[in-house]
Amino acid sequence: MKDDTKLTHAGRHPHENHGAVNTPVYHASTILFPTLADFDSRDRKYVYGRKGTPTTSTLEEAVSALEQAHGTVLAPSGLAAVTTTLMSFVQAGGHVLLTDSTYFPTRKFASGLLARLGIEAEYYDPLIGNGIEALIRPNTNLIWMESPGSLTFEMQDVPAIVAAAKKHGVPTAIDNTWSGGYFFKPLTLGVDVSVQAATKYIVGHSDAMLGTIACNQAAYPKVLDTFLQQGNCAGPDDVYLGTRGLRTMAVRMNRQHENGIKMAEWLRDRPEVIRVMHPALPEDPGHEIWKRDFTGASGLFGFVVDCTDRAALGAMLDGLALFGMGASWGGYESLILPSDPSKMRSATKWEAGGTTLRMHVGLEDTADLIDDLTAGFDRLNSARR
Q1: Annotated catalytic residue: which of 26, 103, 123, 220?
Q2: What is the top EC class of this enzyme, as a single word (predicted)?
Q3: Is 372 a catalytic residue?
Q4: What does the pLDDT look like over 323-365, one tens digit per residue?
């Protein structure tokens, strides 16, 4: 089946739920067993609410189908999915390689809890490709990727990194949130684990916290065991919202692909903009990798404005009517947020020459978004005269 069909049908079992099209929300902790023999054997799919219900199974099956995974674990947030994955592979005295462009809370976890456990985190240039082989040590537990990278959108050569990792028997994992698992299939390229903040494109409506960990056959038992030992579980209402969002993700992401490229092209021609970071643009340094490995682009990208005056930036951003300022993305609405990636780097430098902004383009008409930003740039120019 094609992805659009998978998103519509995968994980649905109406006739196991009295014909209901959508799997109901099971609020459950205790699961009853009819006999002592049944209790002793535990020979059934559902034995305790924390370990899953039909509600969680529906989304797990659907994400596994989408990402072509052996199995999927649902986490209560995107960060919980990241930390569970890292904890599934690290060992005391171990070493992990993380892309320097990674999501900042991932970096904080590595420099915080992992460091306290005696695990060394080393950051590498996201453009390293097969050069990563020189950084692999005998005690390297995991290589962590994110493509494109948070805030600065560098594309990683995932197949080259995976090939080097496999040569040395090192597992690999990737934050695949930007693609939604729809535009990019890292497990088909040999990556062991694909993590998403399902809060973003899977939920799609900015109203639930959720993470997904899609695993190949070798990684799944390790991840599931770590997840259960930590006592994690995703709430049934959030899981239900994730499933409902997943059903329309293809329509939303294809629209956001188109809207994002239109906005990136428009921004590229604005005199206030120094550069646009969007891998679907032909001039982007990562465009060839994106074109090779991805089938589309989400609505999230970055650009740099030729202004560092916070008052002038405030005049621009505070008056926007259609772009909200918020730290998340992936919903139906457009967002914009200033950032300073230079404070989040150690292996590379980010020298933008202006203020870096991250934009998420939603489902609005791009003509209205352009009008809103045009007025914002007018306010910016007036404020810095």
Answers
A1: 103
A2: lyase
A3: no
A4: 999 999 999 999 999 999 999 999 999 999 999 999 999 999 9
pLDDT for res 57: 97
Q: Which CATH class is domain 250-383?
A: alpha beta
Task: Answer yes or no: are the C-beta atoms of 151 and 339 closer than 8 Å.
Answer: yes
| Span 204-256, pLDDT tens digits | 999 999 999 999 999 999 999 999 999 999 999 999 999 999 999 999 999 99
Q: What is the pLDDT of residue 119?
A: 98
What's the one-letter identity of residue 35? T
Nearest CA among 161, 146, 6, 13 for reference residue 68: 6
Catalytic pick among 46, 50, 51, 384: 50
Model confidence pLDDT, tens digit, residues 35-63: 999 999 999 999 999 999 999 999 999 99
At 260, list the tokens. Answer: 């994002």
Catalytic residue (one of 3, 100, 157, 175) = 175
Catalytic-residue membership of 48? no
200 catalytic per annotation: yes
CATH of 3-247, one of 3.30.70.3040, 3.40.640.10, 3.30.310.50, 3.10.310.70: 3.40.640.10
Query: Dihedral of the CA atoms 289, 291, 294, 296 (nearest 10)?
Result: 140
The catalytically annotated residue of 6, 12, 107, 200 is: 200
Is 51 annotated as catalytic?
no
